[in-house]
Design goal:
There is one protein chain. By secondary structure, the protein is of the alpha+beta class. The chain has four domains: about 110 residues, no CATH class; about 90 residues, PAS domain (Beta-Lactamase), CATH 3.30.450; about 80 residues; about 140 residues, Heat Shock Protein 90 (2-Layer Sandwich), CATH 3.30.565. About 55% of the residues lie in helices and about 20% in strands. The chain is built from eleven helices and twelve strands. It has a five-stranded antiparallel β-sheet, with helices on both faces. The protein has a five-stranded mixed β-sheet with strand order 7-9-10-12-11, with helices on one face. Strand 4 and strand 5 form a beta hairpin. It is elongated and about 175 Å long.
């Protein structure tokens, strides 16, 4: 509408100039002397007014565009003209400026909000280029590295060469754990990086968190759990050994000291001593086996990785365990979706883990009707290859499920308690995880993720 009125205004001015030119032509052929001069002056004024009108409009438009270019949104616009043809244009200019002011205000508020978060969060944040030039460092990072300012990542080499190299070479989306010895302090730094581009610069944004306290707490909790299990097993063996050895020693003491009142050894006493020594020998052998089993947890060989089709390894386990399952009236089924899933694993190790899990499910299904075990392969929601062993057996109680991966913990009468612990260590060597979820008497799921 504004530009339509502008066009009409120009057309009217051009038509007036045209009519004035015709009038000048007519008056030149008349007997009037001053009339042509007046008409010519009018034409000159009309042309000057038209040029002035267009120039003023162009200047205001140029000023408006410069305001947008340089983000100068505090100005207001008023194109002065005797006519009202530019009233809507003035209003449109000023409305646009108000909109830009609002957008800029919102952006500034958002920027200050994010800046406040970055400045006050307790996670260290560094933004830097690949050559090490630091674009931004927040107070938490300054406190962590004990610096007042940081212009180059290489300046951190005075603290740790490994830390500087990790920050410079870390890949976007990658997590790294770096141990730093800072005089008497030990820092366990978890580093995560992401990458973005600002104009022509590629910026790495790294978050750094000192997780030393968390690791120490978890390590202490793990040792406490292990010590409780070891203490329980060792005391179970040592208590009867100590008691029986004390009994035997009291029985033979009179004969060892040569006491005159010592009676003749009866056959029953000999049998008692023999039985006690046999029990001591049995418990000692059991304790030695326990220690040997514990040693086996620290001797897991390094995996021999190869690319294996998930469908093949699951089918192999089903073939191996099918007969045992049928003997106990258990249905053993498997599925892999899609069938083309391949994983980089040590086939023998992972096959052994699967066999162990299936055996556990078979034992959990003893006495259950319509027992079913399913071995399922698929990609999880994060796109990682996953294998699940699912059964509908008696399940695992809530207060037990958190302990099943602890070495030597078992709920079975004849179990050693190292199967699931070995399985977890094998999965860790593969860079994966194994977890358990159970609803007693409904469903138990062991999930292996690679």
């Amino acid at each position: 509408m504004v530009f339509k009125q502008f066009r009409i205004n120009i057309v009217i001015r051009v038509l007036l100039i045209t009519f004035s030119c015709l009038a000048l032509f007519i008056t030149l052929n008349s007997t009037y002397t001053f009339t042509p001069i007046l008409v010519a002056a009018l034409i000159i004024y009309q042309v000057w007014s038209l040029i002035r009108h267009v120039d003023r409009t162009n200047r205001e438009l140029a000023s408006f565009l410069e305001s947008i270019r340089y983000s100068e949104f505090t100005r207001s616009f008023k194109i002065s003209d005797s006519s009202s043809s530019f009233d809507e244009l003035n209003a449109a200019f000023n409305d646009v400026m108000k909109d830009f002011q609002q957008v800029r205000s919102e952006r500034e508020e958002h920027f200050h909000y994010l800046q406040s978060i970055v400045q006050n969060i307790d996670v260290s944040i560094l933004a830097y280029q690949r050559d090490g030039t630091v674009e931004m460092i927040n107070p938490a990072a300054k406190k962590l590295f004990q610096v007042s300012t940081l212009k180059d990542i290489n300046k951190l080499r005075s603290l740790s060469d490994k830390l500087a190299d990790t920050l410079l070479n870390i890949n976007p989306g990658e997590n790294q754990l770096v141990k730093v010895q800072d005089e008497e302090d030990i820092l366990q730094l978890a580093i995560f990086a992401t990458e973005f581009k600002v104009k022509d610069k590629v910026i790495l944004l790294s978050t750094i968190k000192n997780i030393q306290n968390v690791l120490e707490e978890q390590e202490t909790a793990a040792w406490q759990k292990l010590i409780r299990v070891l203490t329980h097993e060792i005391m179970n063996s040592i208590a009867p050994i100590s008691s029986l050895s004390s009994t035997v020693e009291s029985m033979v003491r009179p004969y060892a000291t040569g006491e005159k009142s010592a009676p003749e050894i009866e056959i029953e006493t000999v049998h008692e001593i023999q039985g006690a020594l046999q029990t001591i020998n049995k418990r000692s052998t059991g304790l030695m086996n326990f220690v040997e089993t514990y040693r086996s947890l620290t001797k897991i060989p390094e995996p021999n990785f190869s690319l294996v089709k998930m469908n093949e390894i699951i089918s192999n386990v089903q073939t191996l365990m099918k007969k045992e399952a049928q003997e106990k009236n258990i249905l053993l089924v498997n599925s892999v979706e899609p069938e083309t899933i391949e994983v980089q694993i040590d086939e023998q190790m992972i096959e052994q883990v699967l066999i162990n899990l299936v055996k556990n499910s078979v034992q959990a299904l003893e006495g259950c009707r319509d027992g079913t075990i399913q071995i399922r392969g698929f990609y999880n929601k994060r796109g990682r290859p996953t294998i699940q062993v699912i059964d509908n057996g008696q399940g695992i109680l809530d207060d037990v499920i958190d302990k099943i991966f602890i070495p030597f913990f078992t709920t079975k009468r004849s179990g050693s308690g190292i199967g699931l612990s070995l399985s977890r260590q094998i999965l860790r060597l593969h860079g994966g995880t194994i977890t358990a979820k159970s609803v007693p008497n409904e469903e138990t799921i062991f999930t292996m993720t690679f």
